[in-house]
Amino acid sequence: MTDRPLRILIATDTFAPDVNGAAKFTTRLAARLTQRGHEVHVVASALGRGRHGTRIEEHEGERFSVHRLRSMLYPGHEWLRFAHPWRMFQNAASLLDALKPDVVHFQSHIILGRAFSLEAKKRGIRVIGTNHLMFENLMDHSNIPQFLQGKTVEWAWQDAATVLGRCDVVTTPTRRSADYLELKTGLEGVHAISCGLPGDEYSPNPERQRGRIVFVGRVTSEKRLDTLVRAVAQLPSDLEWHLDIVGGGDQIDELAALARELHVADRVTLTGFVSDQELRERLRGAEVFAMPSTAELQSIATMEAMATGLPVVAADAMALPHLVTDGVNGWLFRPDDAEDLAEKLERVLRLDDEEYAKLQQHSLQMVAPHDIEATITAFERLYRGEDIADPDTHVEIDD
User: Fold this and answer.
1) Mean pLDDT confidence for 167-187
2) How does pLDDT run across 55-78, given as a tens digit for each residue?
3) Which residue in 86, 94, 235, 396 is a FRET match for 321, CA 20 to 30 A apart?
4) For the chain, which domains are there?
C-alpha cells in the first residue's frame, strides 16, 4: 500500500463548537489527520443562519477546510443543529464531485452520513461509518409520545442498518458497543476502535484532593445525574465531601432543585459550560470521578478522568466496564441505584493513602492503550483499504 497523503472527507452531524463525545472525537480526528499530512475536509452544519460556506477553521491547533451547510435548530434544543435534510443529497453530490476524496468517513448516519454514503457509493468512493449513537438515549429529547418510543427505537435501528450497510467498514468505540450494534442491526464484522485520548494533555495532581467528587459531561437526563445527587446526599455525616457537576445542559435547574430538596445545595456545584482548561483543572482538583450514565458507548470523560489519575465509580452498564474494574481502578455500581453508588463512593473516600495511590496508578495504566495516535493509525489503515486487527486496549494489572 502506498503511504501517499490522502484526501479525506469527514461528514458529521455534530462538530466543534458542539460539546459532546462525538463532536470532540471528530474534531480531534480531523486535527490529527491534518497533522500527519493528509488533506482533510469536514462537512458539518452551519452554526446559524447566514453562516454557511467553506472556510479554513482552526481546531486543536491545526487548520483545515470545514464546509458548513445551511442548517436548522433541532426543535426544543438549545444548540443542536442539523443540515437541511431536503438539501443533503444535492450537497453531498456537489461536494464529492468537486473534492473527489479518496475516502468518506461519516460519524452519524442520520443526516449527512445518509447522503454522503449513498452518493459516495455511486462514485466508487470508499466509505467508513462510525456509530456514536444509542437510540434509546435520544427518546428524552425526541418529543415522541411514550407509547410510540419502543417502536420508534426499533425502526431507528432498522434504518441504521440500511445506511451502515452501505459502508466498506463500520466502527464503534468499544467491543461491547460493537456487539450491541451488531445485535441491533444484524451487521457483522464491526470494528472496535477507541475514540482515543491525547494523554499528554492530562496530568495527575501529586496531592490527594480529599472529599472532592467530580462528574464531567452533558447535564442531560440520559446521564442519570439525579442518581448521583441522591447518592452524595446519603454519604455519612462524618465525611467531608463536595460534588462538582461540570458541564452544561437542560437539567441544571432540575438538579439544583433536587440538591436543595435533599439539603445538600451547599455541597453541590453546577458549573455550566467551562473551557477545556478549567475542565482539566476540575479533574485535577478531585479525589474521585463519578459516571452514573447507563448508556455510554465509550465515555471520553471517564478516560479523561483516568488520564488525570482519578479512581472511577461508574455504572455497571454498556461500555463502562471496559474502563473500570472493581477494586483495581475504582468500582462499578448497580445502575440507577443511589444507595450502591453512595457505598462505592464512600469506599474510595475512606481509602488510606497507599490504597488510594494504587487505584490512581491503575487508572493511568488502564487508559494508556487508548492513546489517540493508535486510533489515528487504525483509521489511516482502514482508509487505505487494509485489513486490521482491532487495537487491543485491555490491560492486565499485576499487583
Assistant:
1) 94
2) 999 999 999 999 999 998 877 666
3) 235
4) 7-196+371-383 (3.40.50.2000), 199-369 (3.40.50.2000)
